[in-house]
Write a structure and sequence with these properties.
The chain is mainly alpha-helical. It is elongated, with a radius of gyration of 19 Å. The chain has one domain. The mean pLDDT is 76. Helix content is 67%, strand content 0%. Helix 1 packs across helix 4 and helix 3 runs antiparallel to helix 4.
Length: 129
């Protein structure tokens, strides 16, 4: 049982890291800065600056928000669960394989949750609702 707790602990930490890597690592720095600029307010009222060419939908904002939340929850939960786990004399290749498999499942679940949360906010709906 301690072996499974250990595997889940590491898988949670790895899944959280993978979600953050997917979000922030891919794409050049220029593309990422451009994406950040495009997310700035486009309110053309007095005193507001238009920084981007277009604004993403509320759905995109919600999806990114939930990916970050889930990633940090996975990492924190992995550290907490790790307190009760140990690998003892188990085959480390077996542990690595189980950890990778569970991590992929958790990453998929995280992506699905963020997509569904973002889907709730269809175009035209506001975040304040």
């Amino acid at each position: 049982m301690e072996k499974w707790i250990y595997v889940i602990s590491i898988a949670l930490q790895l899944s959280g890291a993978i979600l953050l890597i997917i979000k922030y690592w891919f794409g050049s720095a220029k593309e990422q800065l451009s994406r950040i600029q495009n997310k700035r307010t486009r309110d053309v009222g007095e005193g507001h600056i238009i920084l981007g060419d277009s604004l993403p939908s509320d759905q995109e904002f919600i999806e990114e928000l939930w990916i970050s939340r889930i990633a940090f929850i996975y990492i924190a939960a992995g550290y907490i669960v790790g307190i009760w786990g140990s690998i003892e004399s188990t085959n480390k290749n077996h542990i690595a394989l189980m950890t990778i498999l569970i991590s992929f499942i958790l990453v998929y679940i995280g992506k699905v949750i963020s997509y569904l949360k973002g889907k709730h906010f269809q175009s035209g709906e506001e975040l304040s609702k």
